[in-house]
Design goal:
single chain; about 450 residues; alpha/beta; six-stranded parallel beta sheet; 22 strands; about 30% helix; globular; NAD; Trk system potassium uptake protein TrkA; NAD(P)-bd_dom_sf; potassium transport
């Protein structure tokens, strides 16, 4: 596909990195020449310096025959106008815009051919907030991914000593829980992927990805580790868009405190939130954390716009006795550095955002993509179309499919029914297929499997 990305910041550069590796023709537009030169040094792509919403700049970027425009500059207004220009002047088929302001997102009538012709409005802040919410609602998880409208979930959890399944073969899972439908989709041991088979043994510290219905998540987790009690007391560091959204979503069911260093912002947040206690101060102030009973806090979540501040405050909170600490980290090298160390969960906004973009780039009818393992792996929801003569998957058993190495089908959703996959499972037309791919570089092999002719959806 020929794709134009407007904005070479954190989101734009991570989108470019993901898409350029899949043989797409990528052009990145930004006003900052240094950012563009850095991208050109790292990736095989074109760059154009200029304002992304200006028609002459879009012409230089190749908008006249582009398949897609992804507007992810720091300005909502620039992104929205760029999509309007692309639609009016160049009839660009797919237009995606990053929209951060909630006041825009609250007005769905704004987005459509009658008004602003934006096919997809994405809000990284909303996506990150949802990501953190699922982690808090499912204590002890490393990732919680929804598919088929939440009817099936893929969960990542670390195996601990003492879990009933730890040290045993995978086939024992069904002996322990004969009435629970579950499929282990992937295992990572010391960062190396292991293809799960019936005789694969789970070891301490393995990162296990499994697929199950939401009602069975806790039961399966109990096989891999001692279950964490539900969280009650939370401290959020940072009163920006993410921190405020998170507090608003959590305050009906949890006891929430929010720390913000800007006094004016504190007063504004305190008016917006109903039950959250808003504190003015530095989240890395040891005395403040002790005063607020950090040792009795279930989750400390640092979501300021400063990576270093998030890391330091989360590490301090952990040392002072917080049960679980999470830190929002924009720079990928930092994520690798702190994950599974003093910080329990490092949250990457790019990883939370990229999936919502990738599903619009995938060939075939792909309705959901989750980027995993810092972009190396993916979990995909694809819809099978056609019949046995026109499709490579419809009318075939899973054991008959020519899946690429490292690809595992975890479940099928057929109407209202959720079917955990096994070798004899037959795929029917319109089934939603939940698939884990260890190596994202083999995505084209998966796309070809689910194509009925060449389509771009």
């Amino acid at each position: 596909m020929k794709i134009i990305i407007l904005g070479a910041g954190q989101v734009g550069s991570s989108v470019a990195a993901n898409l350029v590796s899949e043989a797409n023709d990528i052009t990145v537009v930004d006003q900052d020449g240094d950012l563009l030169r850095d991208l050109q040094d790292r990736f095989d792509l074109r760059t154009v310096q200029g304002h992304g919403a200006h028609p002459d700049v879009l012409v230089r970027a190749g908008a006249e025959d582009a398949d897609m425009i992804i507007a992810v500059t720091n300005s909502d207004e620039t992104n929205m106008v760029a999509c309007q220009v692309a639609y009016t002047l160049f009839h660009t088929p797919t237009k995606i815009a990053r929209v951060r302001a909630q006041s825009f997102l609250d007005q769905p009538k704004l987005f459509g051919t009658e008004a602003l012709p934006i096919d997809v409005a994405i809000s990284p802040e909303a996506l990150v907030t949802d990501y953190i919410l699922r982690l808090i609602e499912n204590p002890g998880t490393l990732q919680v991914l929804d598919f088929a409208g939440g009817r099936i979930r893929m969960v990542a959890v670390r195996a601990f000593h003492g879990g009933p399944l730890v040290g045993q073969e995978l086939r024992a899972l069904h002996e322990h829980m004969p009435h629970v439908k579950v499929r282990v989709a992937a295992i990572y041991r010391q960062d190396h992927a292991i293809q799960p088979e019936g005789d694969t043994r789970i070891e301490v510290d393995d990162e296990v990805f499994f697929v199950a219905a939401p009602a069975h998540i806790r039961t399966v987790m109990g096989e891999l580790r001692r279950l964490d009690p539900s969280y009650k007391r939370l401290i959020i560091a940072g009163g920006g868009n993410i921190g405020t959204r998170l507090a608003k979503a959590l305050e009906p069911n949890y006891r929430v405190k929010l720390i913000e260093h800007n006094l004016k912002r504190c007063k504004q947040i305190a008016e917006d939130l109903e039950r959250t206690i808003v504190l003015h101060g530095d989240a890395a102030d040891q005395e403040l954390l002790l005063e607020e009973n950090i040792e009795n806090t279930d989750v400390f979540c640092a979501v300021t716009n400063d990576d270093e501040a998030n890391i330091i405050s989360a590490m301090l909170a952990k040392r002072l006795g917080a049960r679980k600490v999470m830190a929002l980290i924009n720079r990928p090298p930092y994520v690798d550095l702190v994950q599974s160390g003093a910080i329990d969960i490092a949250i990457s906004p790019q990883q939370a955002t990229i999936g919502s973009l990738l599903k619009h780039v995938r060939r075939g009818d792909v309705v959901m993509v989750h980027s995993l393992r810092r972009g190396a792996a993916e979990a995909i929801e694809a819809i099978a179309h056609g019949d046995p003569t026109s499709s490579k998957v419809v009318g075939r058993r899973i054991s008959e499919l020519k899946l690429p190495k490292g690809a595992v089908i975890g479940a099928l959703v057929r109407g209202d029914d959720v079917l955990i996959a096994h070798g004899e499972t037959l795929i029917e037309s319109e089934d939603h297929v939940i698939l884990f791919l260890q190596d994202k570089r083999r995505i084209q092999e998966v796309e070809r499997l689910f194509q009925v002719g060449v389509t771009f959806l």
